Amino acid sequence: MKPIRNEKLRRTVRYLVPFVLAPGFVALGITVFHEKRYAFISLCIAVSAVALFATGFDKKRTGSRRLVIVSVLTALSIVGRFIPIFKPVTALTVLTGMYLGAESGFLAGSLTAVLSNFYFGQGPWTPFQMLSWGLLGFLAGILAEPLKRSRVLLFIYGIIAGALYSFIMDVWTVVWYNGDFSIKLYLAALVSAIPYTVSYVVSNVVFLWVFAKPFGEKLTRMHIKYGI
Amino acid sequence: MKALDSFNPLAVFVYFMASAGIAMFSMDPVILLLSMLGAVTLFVIRREGRQTGTHLFSLFLFLTLTVINPLFQHNGRTVLFVLNDNPITLEALLYGADAAAMVVSVLYWFRSFSSIITSDKLLYLFGLLSPKPALMISMALRFVPLFRMQAKRTDMAQRALGKYKEDNAIDFIRMKLSVFSIMVSWALENGIITADSMAARGYGTGRRTCFSPYKFRPQDALLLGLSLMLAGAVGAAMALGGLEFAFYPTVSKISPDFLRLAAYIAYALLSFLPATIEIGDALKWQYLRSRI
């Protein structure tokens, strides 16, 4: 089988997703999956959002050095996910976004999600993990300047990121189980996830506290030495 | 029995998206029952992982998810009993069982999916879409064992230096942190060398292709075609309202009209397709062995 011609496909996806696919999924969800339309629409939109980001990264001329460095950081966070309870994944994704740019942050976060799930279990939650970790890395890239300047802001971002990850994932949990969004079930899911949310928040702050300086120094050195 | 492992990843991927997808987005209890039976059969005959543990966990999850719904949802006509001034209804309990069957059967589908679509096959699927993420996936996957090996080496070197006492917890953590720091520096420098080597060998000068050892054989086309056709049939029945099913205020009865029966038959065929492939392959193998 021959690979699809990439340039053309990429351009198609970039225009197809926002103008055709997204409204199409909404229409399909409403007409075909009557009771489960919210679950269907949210899953499809998550997948197409990730695809849209991937094409954006591909289109931009990214040097092979940056590409390899992002893969290195992705591999580090995959290895880090094996640490029990306290996971450095979000912290590493945030640092990638801060020092290598928003798109690299998105790619590192979403690739970590899909690849580490080979060890932790794939499922319909994978696209949502890709999207939420990716967005946390992307936002860190956009807020890079203030986050680099102030450690307090970085810790606040870590806390918000941990909570946000839980909030986004629980929207999916509720919609998947219930077929419809129910605020009562959502609150119950959030409450039952409190131990996890706390562990995310704590590990984000701890790992950002430990890693921010050495990682910043090393990545800045990369920038000065090799011009990435 | 691992017949499905030799199929083209694209066909297998489409199949699992179709079978799990319909289960995920349908509320019809018969569809969910078929999905559960098909998924569990496939999981059992493929003998993946820890069987008893998985089944016990699934049963526990099923029961938990079944009881959660009536605690939060008080619609429905048939009140079973009243808990803290809130009515617990039969309809809400059945809805909970329906949703639980959906979640548990999708989990079973994805267990088999993960064991068939390994990371190298995912690489092939990504390669069809976009070559750069595919390249990054292959590099990241290669770096994971490399980093583990290098971390072990660094760790041994640090121990040999004798700077850290092994029986002192703080010293131990300091050693681990310094190993990690050395690892990160090494990984980044090593990455640059890799990138330069790639550039020297002409990376980025031409159109990138992905190596793929997967051919598209007639049986792959058959699996792909059948998946799309059967899923399309069920989807069409859904779109025409043939599979509508309501739990509130009362559980609707399943009327045996043509559309509904056709959808059930199509989904039953879809659901047991991989189990049939596995069993057929095993029978063929047994037959061939009996002739020796």
Name its key features.
heterodimer; A: 228 residues; mainly alpha; 2 domains; 10 helices; B: 292 residues; two-stranded antiparallel ribbon; 9 helices; 73% helix
Provide a compact summary of the structure.
The complex is a heterodimer of chains A (228) and B (292). With 228 residues, chain A is mostly helical.
Provide structural commentary.
The complex is a heterodimer of chains A (228) and B (292). Chain A has helices at 6-31, 37-59, 64-80, 89-100, 102-120, 126-142, 144-149, 151-178, 183-192, 194-226. Chain A is mainly alpha-helical and 228 residues long. Chain A folds into 2 domains: 1-61; 63-226, Orthogonal Bundle (Arp2/3 complex 21 kDa subunit ARPC3). In chain A, helix 2 (37-59) crosses helix 5 (102-120) and helix 8 crosses helix 9. Chain A is globular, with a radius of gyration of 18 Å. Chain A starts with 5 loop residues before the first helix and ends with a helix. The model of chain A is unreliable at 1-5 (pLDDT under 50). Chain B has helices spanning 9-24, 29-46, 51-72, 90-116, 119-129, 131-161, 169-200, 218-239, 258-290; strands spanning 79-83, 86-89. Chain B has a two-stranded antiparallel sheet. At the A-B interface, helix 1, helix 2, helix 3, helix 5 and helix 8 of A face helix 1, helix 3, helix 4, helix 5 and helix 6 of B.
